[in-house]
Amino acid sequence: MRHLKAFHVFHVAASSSSYSEAADKLCITHGAVSKQIKVLESYLSQPLFYKKGRHVYLTQEGEVLKKYTTQAFDALDEGIDKLTLVRNKCLEVSCEPTLTMRWLMPRLSDFYSQVPNADVRLSTAGGPVTLGVNALSLAIRRDDFELLHDYKRTKLVDEWVGPVFAPDYWQQVKGDLSKVRLLHSETRPQAWASWCQSAGKMGLLDNSSQSFAHFYFCFQAAVDGLGAALGSYPLVADDLKRGNLIAPFGFLLSGHSYMLLSQEKTSDDQLEQRFIHWLQGNLQRCVPNQACDEQSLD
Length: 298
What we know:
Elements: H1 4-13, H2 19-26, H3 30-44, E1 49-52, E2 55-58, H4 60-88, E3 91-95, H5 97-114, E4 120-124, E5 136-142, E6 152-164, H6 167-173, E7 182-185, H7 191-199, E8 209-212, H8 215-223, E9 228-232, H9 233-242, E10 252-262, H10 270-284, H11 290-293
């Protein structure tokens, strides 16, 4: 394409308030920016900017061109990310923070034992995600938000939730449930209300409470005997097994599930497919055994 450099300068300038700001972003001079814009305007026989005071603004023609340069350079960035992924031969996976720390990371060694040369790189985030950015291939999410993209959705496991207590703390409060302190997460403030309604224990909502930024802190507070946390089963399974926590009320289906988001592939990515198969198998087995997890209320 002719004048590719000029198109790139225009693309940056179109998102800037002045040629000087664009020059700083591009690490070139103000004059160099102005020259490239003039080259492009001459080539297109269209005015792309007009000046008002110290700022520059896009003309109607410039606004039209900006839409297409944005698409073009976004596509180029995506292509570079994919090339980086191919070169590095790694799998970039985004996962919700607490699920990453309390379930996925402790089990990755099992995946590596099955696929010794694998390189799985985790990043933590929740909610909406854009795959392909920074070579991101997969995202593990709870299905409690509106998807912004038409990604392939693979259900991993239904979500089971229930209150969890440190054993000593449960002994202190089991005779009078009004003494139970409810540990809330700011990321899901209605979690206790939803469970109490489903379990028929609305009276618990009158109890004292304490709020934390993330569920990870809620569970640590529960282990430390500061109160009861509402646990999504995979997030507390290991502590239940070790005896650090107990679930005297068992677990109920929340109506949500954990899902895997991925893009439709034209080629077979063996590492990605093996990771997905491993992930599905392990999470599908991570469901509560009510007979084992439910403790006596006496």
